[in-house]
Each structure stands twice: as C-alpha cells, then as structure tokens.
Amino acid sequence: MEVIRGLHNLRDKHRGCVATIGNFDGVHLGHQKVLEQVKNKARDLGLPTTVIIFEPQPREFFGGDAVPARLTRFDEKVRLLADQEIDRVLCLPFNEQLRQMTAAEFVESLLLKGLAVQHFVVGDDFRFGCDRAGDYAMLCEVGHEQGFSVEHTLTYTVGEERVSSTRIRKALAEHDFVLAQALLGRPYRITGRVMHGQKLGRQLGVPTANVRMHRFAAPLRGVYTVSVQLAGRPLANGVCNIGLRPTVGGTRPVLEVHLLDFSGDLYGKLLSVEFKTFLRSEQKFDGLEQLKSALFTDIQAAKDFFLSQNSSGRQAWPITKRH
Asked: Which residues, other chains included, contact 118 with Cβ-Cβ below 8 Å and sequence gap of 6+?
C-alpha cells in the first residue's frame, strides 16, 4: 500500500480511482464495510482504491486537548488500512490552509485535479469546506457535471446499535473489552516500539517494556491484564499500566507492560498490547515500597486471571446491516 502525504505529492499515476474520506479512527467494522463498498466498486471499474484521511484529525485541530482520545495512532491506522487491502492512503495535513478552503476549492483541488475520482463513497451527513457548503447533495451535483458517481456509506450495526468510534471509546471506558472487540472486529490493541525508560520497574524487581506513545492519548487509563504480540505472533501475557505514573512525578502518558514468565531484550521491537481485563485505576502511592507492593498484587491478579481464563465463555453480539 502506498502512503501519499499531502496534495503536493500527488502524481499523474494517482489520477483515476475509487475513493472515500474520513477519520477512520479504529478502522472498525463500520469502516470496514465502507472499505468493502470502495473495493467492490473499484473491482467493477478496474481502478485502484484511495482512502483520504487527515492528520491531525479536524476535531483535534479545532479542539486541541478537549477532543476525545484516539483509538489508533496514525501508524496503526495505516497498518490496519493496509490489512484491508487498500491501494493508497492520501494523508492531508489539516492546517490553516486546508481549513480556509471553500467546498468548491476542496472538490476542485482534491477530487478533480488531484485524484480525478471516478467514484466517491461518502456519508450522506458529510460536511466540508470553510463555508460549510460541501455536502452529499453538492457532491452528487458536481459529480453529475464532471462525470464521477457518488454513493453514500451504509450503516453497520452490532447489537441493534450503529458501530462508531464513539461507541467503542465508551465500551473501553466501561472496560467492556468483549463489546469493543465485537465493534472493532478484533481485540483492542495498542501498538508501538519499545523505548528506553527510567528502568524504575527493574529496580523494583518488576521489569517493564515501555511502549512509545509519542503524542497519542490512549482511551484507557489504569492497570490491565494484557496479551502481547511481537511481529504478529504471541509473545507473553502480562500486566500493563497506562497513565502518568503519579507516584514518581510523571507528566506524560506512558504505557508500561510487565511480561509474565519472559526474559529478553525487546528494545526497538514493535509490540502489540491486547487488553483483556481491567484490574484497577492508576493511583498515587506514598513511596516506592507501596508502589512495589501494589505491582506484585497486580501481577498475582494477572496470573490468576490467565489461569482461570475460559475462552468458551465469551459473549456473542448479534450483527445486522442496514441500508
């Protein structure tokens, strides 16, 4: 899959495609159904598929720290789109220049001149342009004039409710990982490279792998049982903390995972941390000894969980699709 960063990097070879646009945060089952629409039409027309995304996401540009946490970082989103066999991802930097574009300018520069879109899949509630003049009706009108077709996205439901990133964030906030998995079509994971940290866990007898978060604010906070994968293969079970580490004066979110019954060098490796159950909220302890005691309690709770885990008891969710 090819990743194109910015309109200025579009070339003649990128013209002529079936495209869609959106945040695609989580690339959940609803998104996957949209991508299926795109791929089916592309197959019929013999054209490549293009997914248009923004970085930062528009709500992040306007809302700053007040916006909801993302489900996936940019690189995770790209990997998930690649898994869906999308040909190209066009990432548009959402900046002041893009914010000031009118709807007509956006269509002209992106859909017509930039991509020469032949078919466009978009939600019928999609709005764009600084003048808010861009909507589904406008796209249909321009498409009729310029020779491309427009199709609205289908609504996909699980448990009689629409699948959305907001609903998944709510499930994660309530520690309902069964529902989150049903909405995502896979277990919820955070993926990142292991970086060097303060090595405080090692001093306490609980060595941890510190997964690089960059600016990503996870939709989870606290201590969890997890399963960890390396290069797509199971590595070990463990216990994970996501938070600020208030006991040691932390100020930036960190993901630390202690692997059970594992030893080895993981620095620089790409780990996927899959969340199983919530153990407790993050808290500030009165010193390192209290912290150490809590960590060993967490580890024992994780061991007990994995010993008792029974995969046959997972809850099934009815799935329906509506037009």
From this structure: 16, 17, 18, 45, 47, 147, 148, 149
pTM (predicted TM-score): 0.88
DSSP 8-state code for residue 33? H
If we measure between CA atoms, which residue out of 120, 99, 105 comes closest to residue 37?
A: 120
pLDDT tens-digit readout, 278-300:
999 988 777 778 888 888 999 99
Break the chain down into helix, strand, coil percent, rounded to 5.
Answer: 35, 30, 35
Write down the residue that tokens 């993901």 correspond to: 255
Q: What strand order describes the sheet that includes 155-158?
A: 161-162, 155-158, 319-322
pLDDT above 50: residue 120: yes
At CA 145, angle to CA 142 and CA 147, rounded to 5? 95
**Residue 9: CB atoms within 10 Å:** 12
DSSP string, 296-312: HHHHHHHHHHHHH--GG
Which of 321, 314, 27 has the alpha carbon at shortest distance from 164? 27
For residue 222, give the H/E element and its range: strand 222-230
Query: Average pLDDT, stretch 295-315?
Result: 79
